[in-house]
Amino acid sequence: ICDAPHLRNMVDFIMNGFSLHGMEDSDRDYVQKCIIESVLASVSETEAAMAEYWIGPIVSISMNNIDRKVMSDEIYILMDSDGKRAGMLWLGVSNDQFTCDVTGYLLGIYVEPELRCTGIGSSLLDFAEKWCDERGYLSLTLNVSRMNAVARSLYEKHGFQVQTSVMKKNLR
User: Fold this and answer.
1) How does DSSP classify residue 59?
2) What burial class does residue 85 get, using C-beta atoms within 10 Å of its C-beta: 0-12 exposed, 13-18 middle, 19+ buried?
3) Which DSSP state fits 41?
4) 96 - beta bridge partners?
């Protein structure tokens, strides 16, 4: 997944004691866990309690996209100084839905619960912005659930602003 030659191996991370590396096959189960936990953090408690009935297709589509190794997508695994996985960052490319300009896209970000609120999420976002800048993208876009107040707060702190709201009505 990580095809940028200068980022292919270990990348020194902004925070001491951590490093990023491009996703390897041995990281697949960890990435899947990160996706599941991120999705569950984005839904109500009621929906999370019923996840066994609906989360499978979401995980399947995400993992199929990863397995296809879309050339513009890069997944990084955050490692602590002991070599333990501490988080994940999934970056890609999209087009702005209004201007059609090419934009970097934050497909996924995850930090292990015991490491949250330590600045790691901020450092991952800084890395994502540098990733976009190196490729000439003028913006970084992401989606965040209104249910995920912690993530929304982090993104707002980093200057992200609501561009549009998606509305949904459950029919059943």
Assistant:
1) H
2) middle
3) T
4) none
